[in-house]
## 1
Amino acid sequence: MQEIKKIKITGMTCSMCVRTIEKKLNKLEGVYKININLTSETASVEFDNNKVSINDIIQNIEDVGYGAKIDVESEFPVKKNALIFPIVSLVISILMMLSMNFDYVHHKFYYFYPIITFLILLFLSKDIFINAYKNIKNYNLNMDVMYATGIFVSFASSLLGTFYHIDYEYYDTAIMLAAFLRIGKFIENNAKKNTNLVLNKLKKMIPERVLKKVNDQFVETDLKLVNKDDYIKILPGNIIPVDGFVVEGNSVVNEASITGEPFDKSKTVNDYVYAGSINQNGYLIVKVDKIGEKSIIGEIIEILENAQIGKTQYHKLVDKISKIFLPIVSLIAIFSFIINFLVLNNSLAFSLSSAISVLVIACPCALALATPTAISVGFGIAAKYGFLIKNIETVERYVDIDTLIFDKTGTLTYGIPNVEKLYIVKGSHENLLQIAYNLEINSNHTFASAIIEQAQKHSSNNQLPISEFHEIPGKGLNAIVDDKKYYIGSFNYLLENEIYLNSEQKLLYQNIIEQGGSPVFLFTDKELLAFFDIRDKIKEEAREIIEYFKSKEKAIYILSGDNKKTVETIARKLNVCNYYGELLPNDKKKLIEKLNQEGKNTMFIGDGINDILALTEAKLGIAVSNSTDIAKEAGDIILLNKSLKSLILLDKLLNRIFFQIKINLFWAMIYNIILIPIASGVFYNYIRITISPGISALFMAISSISIVLFSLSLNKFRGEVL
Amino acid sequence: MKYQLEIPNMSCNHCVMKIKKIFEKYSVEVTDVNLSDKFIIIEDKSELKEIDKIKEDLADLDYFVENIRKIE
């Protein structure tokens, strides 16, 4: 049976490691797909459990020198005092280096140097050598092989110096190399963890203990023991651990961690509260609806985790570079030795040091970390502001977008329409409202809520027997209410049923449309009964958003299922020239398809569920979510924050993330391009600068750390208060 | 011609390197080194014509040559 499992992997430092594991697992029969996330150190493996077991997969990962566990939530034990031994070793190496300049001490400890160095290396770089051995056994060249080669050459040459008197004796270098590698990896791993800070914070946010109602009393219990429909009590100041309905109490709740909206919301009986929000001042008793992974915070975590799986074009570029990187670096190291020693007549010590420096300073790690660290930090910040970015490719696709297509209802307008007026053609006000109420009560359309509200306002909300309910998307609906068939819907739906307006009604109809209203007609198969003038207000910030994107030279389109005149009125008010009305969901899709074919890079912004086709057809889909079931939303980005202004913030953030990726890649490239030739020593006679192997190890660590720090600088991104 | 030179305070690789450099200066090749028995073997086509200068240079570095023995 096909199965997808997440695995926690440790010991990966760069894309070489990712490639090694992918290569190994791809050879296993029954493994279909592997996605590895370097920064979160997790892998998602799709496999057939009849052909290969998860234990085999883990064993294979371990065989190439990495740690693997099924439980992704668990952390591998962090060795306490992991830095002490490398630092002590570093001090010893410095003392060794100094002592070698004092003949008396050097003579005294002459044969101790190799013994001390061997013992230190045994403890300090045992893992590097074991991993290098495993990789060589699998015909694989990775950074551990390079490091192990560097340390080994440095130590072996020093031994030759001691016993066979070649011009090389730098035990201190071998130790320094190993120590800096350990220190560098430690700092890098810690910094890397910070790139997933928001994700980790979200995971730790939900309290493990809750007050659950048992036999009319609230007792503290483990959250794992709480089920749907249980009652839990949330005290002031506590984080709400589940999604559910308030059944008792009043309070003010802050949902900033979910929606990014900083404003507190008051909650009372029948209101819905979300896991992860903070109960501010009163107690609340909540009937549990969704827990753990199914709660809104669980879904956000899942989307965030999955978003980082996959590869951007930059990942693919780095993968390509990595494939040739190490063989090329090895060749450069060999050539630098040959040129230094044989051509430039430099000393053996200098030539060997230079070759080792090249092996160590070459850093594909920085290249590999450039994109994923920026993505991790950036997506975390996005989540903080209430933007859920579902795919890693989103950032790349976003920067190419030149055409923004807005859905009207619910996106540019509030999507909460009101009945402005009811024009009666035949029948009583109460009776017509009653019929409309019974038709619309079964519909999810935004106009339905306006009619229902109007009926409730006039107490015309009695339930009548209803049967044969049919809803035609984008047009209207019909049903048999109280033994008679009624229709309610758009002007086109009216015409389709061959009901025509008289001149007076036409005038009224035109008037409604020119005012930006949407007429909804109630009719039988013989005659028109009434029509509703339904108005939806334009969001205050809509004009600002449109102007912002226009200033960025983006083409703006408005699409709507609403009638053309209404759409035109709204478009005019918003200063938009491209608008289309009376579009069915499939028409919107076709229009976007046409724009795509014209070579436009389209982005559709719609209110989620209604616009699935358009959201998926556009090159990028943004769902302005009004739903709590976010995992089911179509779209590459979900805006949990309903303010349209958040689009400006999103634009700035995505551009900033993209800029960061480019800076990181540039830095990683330039670092290698400049330092490898310097380390090779072949230009020493001209530039008088060279880099010793120990310092190379330091530089190597700095390159990776600097990339992580660059990415963490994204944390300085500040959005305006929405 | 090959000669064996005893240098009692030659103790480590650094000493060997320093000593080798002096011999190289006078185009004398050091062919073997024995640190534990404190001697080196050199090959000198000039039949130790410059040995006094070499000894002086070595003495400047505090390496004193004792017992020079022709071995080939």
Note: Chain A has a mean pLDDT of 84.
## 2
Amino acid sequence: MNPRLILPLLLLTLLFPASAFAELDVSDARIKHLPPTVPVRAGYMTLRNPGAQAVTIVAVQSDAFASVEIHRSYMQDGMMRMDPVDSLTIEPGETLQLAPGGLHLMMMQPAEATRPGDSIEIVLEFDDGTEQRLTLEVVK
Amino acid sequence: MNKSTILAVAAIALIGGFALSWHAHVNRAIELESGVWFGEQARALPEFQLVEHNGSKLTRESLQGKWSLMFFGYTHCPDICPISLQTLADMVRAIDDPHVADALKVYFVSVDPARDQPQVLADYVTYFNPDFIGATAPLEQLTPLTRSLGIAHALRNQTEGSEQYDVDHSAAIVLINPRAEYAGLFGAPQDAAKMARDMTRIIERNPL
């Protein structure tokens, strides 16, 4: 490679970090506020895949919580149940809702007390190794 | 039959009559919008003892004199349990008649006593309404109550060496009358406005 190209290329990669290749349109991303001693929060959002390829979320991370998992609540025979979900696939053009009473992020052990209005950053990790950063607002 | 015996029999009959009429009174037929009303089929609760989030005892006797709504859940349930507690808070706010609101207490009973310490329960329930009461007890004391109310709960998704597990639990909100009898239930998903109208109807027709 022409050595004179290296610096411009490096600058180019700085301009386009992984998050610039965001694969999902995210809206209504929020965390239901609970008192600080309560160890778990639920995160909700609407995810739309505008691309031509299916997108699969395999993990979610956040510095603000000890761990984040994808969970699904559902009712069966009058019982409320909740199960972890390994991955979420969103087909091209499809929209997936993480909403109360169904799919949600189970966000465990907040590192610090959060308050309504706070912004919490999370990272969605995809099966192809890429990731997407997004911000959830803590809501009452 | 001498005079004092007649008086005694009359007195007993009178007291019995009052008791019967009051019994019918709290359980009179009511059509509910959003729940099931047991009417005459209301069932006495067994003896039980839980601990409220402020440290006081919650027993069958302490339920007497008020109408009680009881929801069962746990604080590591971030999705469904807050929805139900928010519905209950909205219901209380939707009750216009202050006498009805005063006659009603709301309990959140944790079916996860191992993790739900009093302070966590206190913060959790009072966040939704400062008058809500959290309560729990070790399972051997909790189960006689939940069984008598038809409330099931069981640990699931438990992995060895991990504190993380889920607790399946019945989603119904249970209604207990001022005689500490299981008097009705509201199945999920509950609707705050309908429940408020139902509770108003029940309590106005059965004043304390």
Note: The helical segments of chain B are 3-26, 80-94, 98-102, 118-128, 139-148, 192-205.
